[in-house]
Amino acid sequence: MIRSLLRSSVAVLSLCVLTACSSDSGENLTTDLEPSNCELTGNSYGIVGGQILGSGNELSASTVLIINVNKNEEQSICTGTLIANDKVLTAAHCAPSDSKAIAIAFTNNAGCVNSAPKRTLRFVVDKAVNEDYTESGSIHNATYDIAILKFKGGVPKGYKIRGLPSANFTPAPTDTLVMSGYGSTREKSGDSGTLRFTKSSASNILGNSFYLARANRTVSVSKTIVVEQPHTGVCSGDSGGALYAETKEGLTLLGITSMGVDHKALKDSDIRICHGVAIYVDVRENLDWIREESAKLDRYQY
Fold first, then answer.
1. Which residue stretches of 133-211 are H helix?
2. DSSP helix/strand/coil, 288
3. CATH architecture of 28-44+55-161+288-298
4. CA–CA gap between residue 238 and residue 242 (Å, rounded)
5. pTM greater than 0.90 (yes/no)
């Protein structure tokens, strides 16, 4: 296993409610339309080199917090995207086999879950995880790092479904990439739980391969999108979150955050996982799987 990998499971959040106790596209990313007493507004450095994403806008309205509780009552967080009135698209490692419970929180601040759980929480009743995904640390496992979570209770007011891209959509190098998630702002920080976003140039897309210095070779990962992020990008807790291309027509869903890799570090002491490359599952390459598995989940009523 290559040690310079990032997984969202290290972003731990304490939530006793689950246990015992302006762009030209018109997608205004920071406007807070219907703030609650606990939700956050304004701008702040976050994600990695990003800003707090206010609630009630086009981007936050389709982004949700995923809270996983394992058999040992340990909690971790991920990010997900609403693709139906009862379904969230996320990474497979955000729905591990040892899950005791998984919840979807509709908020831009994890602190709101404890203060208003009835308004913000929906519990997952079923899931579809790519059958080829294995819970290993291999970079190539990113190819299959995709899952759909089905929840009960419906979508709260102010939230909306994000459409899937067309199979032939290709961002132009001049387009802007948008990433969002509830993750940390830097390696080893404890500030996850706040929804943030950041932007990058589509010219930072490296295709589905990158040079890994420690292995002295180029690594190709099929059905993924690799984005270089030396200054701004995703970190722990952002896994499962969306990668968008921002065009004149609006935001188009491109990928799902799988992992980060410090592709330049030559030794452990130099590793900065959140400042290397991010590997996203390519949604366009998984459209058939998403539709087929969504249909299977619809066969059962809860």
1. none
2. helix
3. Beta Barrel (2.40)
4. 9
5. no
